Amino acid sequence: MTCKTLLFAALFAVTAAWGEDQASSRRPDGTGDPDATTCRPPQPLPGARVLGPKVCKTNSQWALLRKNNQDISSDGSEIIPDKSAGATMNCTSTGGGASNGGGMTVCH
Fold first, then answer.
1. What is this structure's pTM?
2. Does 3 map to a domain?
3. What pLDDT does 83 receive?
4. Is residue 13 part of a domain?
5. Domains identified in the chain, total number
6. Is the C or the N end of the chain the one with fewer CB within 10 Å?
7. How many Å apart are CA 59 and CA 39, to the nearest integer?
8. Is residue 4 part of a domain?
9. pLDDT digits (tens, 9 = 90+) for 47-64
10. pLDDT at residue 24 above 80?
11. Using an 8 Å Cβ cutoff, are 67 and 52 in contact?
12. The domain containing residue 49 runs over which residues?
């Protein structure tokens, strides 16, 4: 067996083992072990024919988002109001200093 084959086999084994620790749910709500990871499958991006990324967070992070009636955008980049919660939220950008480069979206 060549070194390349051994490296590929080891990488495959590690990748397969890593994937087993992640549950998947179309709408993760944070139930279960708070330290376990749950992934939301890719969602359609608005105005595009492609899907966004798979979004993985710990159950404690998903639970906090749901408690605050929040979700993660389909592109995985923002915290947004949870449309399925039925509540309206007020979101504003804060921080960032003089260049506004480090701003963050905060929803209430």
1. 0.62
2. no
3. 87
4. no
5. 1
6. N
7. 9
8. no
9. 999 999 999 999 999 999
10. yes
11. no
12. 19-83
